[in-house]
Amino acid sequence: ANLTDALRGNSKVQGDWGEACLETILESTGLVKGIHYHIQQNIKGEEGENLRPDVVLSLPEERSIVIDSKVSLTAYVRYTEAESASERSQALAEHVQSVKRHVQELAAKEYQKLINSPDFVIMFIANEPAFLEALKADPTLWSEAYEKKVLISSPTNLFALLKMVADLWKYDAQDKNTKRIAECGLKLYEQAVALTASLEQVGTALQKAQSAYDDTYKRLHTGNNNVVRLGQQLK
Question: Rounded to whole angstroms, how far apart are CA atoms 38 and 55?
Fold first, then answer.
């Protein structure tokens, strides 16, 4: 009841609640804060102004997607509590207009031009029924937002998208490990070839040393007119 009262009349509380829901979903997909996503990261606008989207979701290859939580449930709560069909119809129309207004505001910021991003941003609506009722009331809502390069997302489909991103990070790590294994294998092969060449040089040097030793020993003791024999003759 307290949450309902707060969400009904306080836009700040609505925003905080939406951001909390968004972060909960991010954490539940296995993504790591500060590595795979950043909260309230400062982005400089084209005119130097500071922009702080709720989440900047990092992708492999240094790409990012902005996710902004837009929660305005005032009209939707009136819709759920309306007693007459006319009140419900009016409240639902206001709810749809509120969603459209948020789409327009987010599209105008053009976050995707400020970061290395796919050509869209994600607008997160934390309340699944509010998301579904808006789409049922205006079936063109999603496509119109998409034309403005805004993807409207509910908790369910955002969770699926984030799981795909988590898989991308996993495959990226596997790909990097595969490349490291290949690089180490190549270096190991190159070292083995170099070691073989070095051993051949050592063998050649040992053969020369053995030959020199044999020649020296002959001169000293076993060969004709060796030093020992000549010394004995001299004695």
Answer: 6
**Which residues are bridge partners to 124 per DSSP?**
69, 153
Give the helix ranges, DSSP H, for the chain.
2-9, 11-28, 74-81, 85-109, 128-137, 141-147, 155-217, 227-234
Site of tokens 């270096």:
187
- Give 124-140 pLDDT, tens digit per residue: 988 888 888 899 999 99
Scanning the structure block, which residue is given the tokens 């909960």?
Answer: 24
Q: Which residues of the chain have pLDDT under 50?
A: none
User: Is 225 in contact with 219 (CB distance < 8 Å)?
Assistant: no
Angle at 128 between CA 127 and CA 134, to 5 degrees: 95
CA 172/CA 44 separation, integer angstroms: 29
Tell me the one-letter amino acid at 166: A
Q: Which pLDDT score is estimated for 4?
A: 67
pLDDT at 113: 79
- Buried b / exposed e along 18-33 (16+ C-beta atoms within 10 A): bbebbbebbeebebee
pTM, to two decimals:
0.66
CA–CA–CA angle 160, 164, 169 (5° rounding): 145
What local confidence, expressed as pLDDT, does residue 183 receive? 86
